[in-house]
Design goal:
The protein has 2 domains: about 180 residues, 3-Layer(aba) Sandwich (Rossmann fold), CATH 3.40.50; about 60 residues, Orthogonal Bundle (Helicase, Ruva Protein, domain 3). About 35% of the residues lie in helices and about 20% in strands. It contains 11 helices and 9 strands. The protein has a 7-stranded mixed beta sheet with strand order 4-3-2-5-6-9-7, sandwiched between helices. Strands 1-8 form a two-stranded antiparallel ribbon. The chain is elongated and about 70 Å long. Bound molecules: S-adenosylmethionine. S-adenosylmethionine binds next to strand 1, helix 2, strand 3 and strand 5. The site of S-adenosylmethionine (SAM) has 25 residues, from strand 1, helix 2, strand 3 and strand 5.
């Protein structure tokens, strides 16, 4: 992939780098995985807070730059790899963090969420719109499939916004930092098959402007749906608990 396509907007504001490192590691963490370390600005802030840091960088020139910059640093392991094709759970329970390349932020976060118990915490700098989708409340414009998936698997917090001027070169959009802390809502809601539940949620959102009655007619049957209190609502108005209730009934 061409370098400009790799989302290489490097964070240069020290105070922001420090805030991200502190959010990822409020205390010393035995194992941290950094996705897209770039030139190592966040890496340098993370190192004093970790026992071991695994940094995954796709760009070979940047991976080499990091090897030289951090030569002799025993806590750091640099892997020249595509994070989208790396099993991020292979090192065991870890904090996962990074200033994510924007083209891959959503699939990377989905992968992290699906690791569930293997992730202690995720702290990511992403496009503001993605941060809003991850933390949206039912009924808001940004609420959708990704929000429901995230709410099912983690407690998601919008931490703070980052302006384009904090980067070099500045991106065209605002950014924000989110924190994901895996929880056990799935077990509490008695959802045993994650993929099956997500297929159901995706069906509810199939045509966003249409009601549950319309989106589920084929699956549940119009007659049965008439007894559902959610039938006349749109998926974007429903909470995770309501999706779980409908799923059990369907
Ligand atoms: N962390 C650095 C910083 O804050 O200055 C750089 C962040 S930059 C937004 C994204 C980084 O991710 C770039 O260094 C880019 O080369 C790298 N990258 C892009 N796609 C990647 C992938 N699929 N796997 C691993 N790294 C990737």
């Amino acid at each position: 992939m061409a370098r400009q396509k790799l989302g290489q907007h490097f964070l240069v504001k020290g105070a922001i780098l420090e805030r991200i490192a502190a959010a990822a590691c409020p205390e010393t963490e035995p194992l941290v995985i950094e996705i897209g370390p770039g030139r190592g600005a966040l890496t340098g802030r993370l190192l004093p807070r970790v026992g071991r840091l695994v940094a995954i960088e796709l760009d070979p020139a940047l991976a080499e730059h990091l090897r030289v910059k951090f030569a002799g640093e025993p806590r750091l392991e640099i892997l020249r790899r595509d994070a989208l094709e790396t099993d991020l759970g292979q090192w065991g329970p870890a904090v996962i963090t990074g200033n994510l390349p924007y083209y891959a932020a959503t699939p990377l976060i989905e992968r992290v969420l699906r690791l569930r118990g293997t992730v202690r915490r995720g702290v990511f700098l992403v496009q503001k719109e993605v941060a809003q989708r991850l933390t949206a409340a039912p009924g808001s414009r940004q609420y959708g499939y990704l929000t429901v998936l995230a709410a099912l698997l983690a407690d998601c917090r919008y931490l703070f916004e980052v302006k384009p001027s904090a980067f070099h070169p500045p991106p065209k959009v605002d950014s924000a930092v989110v924190r994901l802390e895996p929880h056990r809502r799935m077990e509490e809601l008695a959802i045993r098959d994650l993929e099956d539940f997500l297929r159901f949620v995706s069906r509810c959102f199939r045509q966003k402007r249409k009601t549950i009655r319309n989106n589920l007619a084929e699956m549940v049957g119009r007659e049965a749906l008439e007894a559902w209190p959610e039938a006349g609502l749109r998926a974007e108005q429903l909470s995770l608990e309501q999706f779980a209730g409908m799923y059990r009934r369907a």
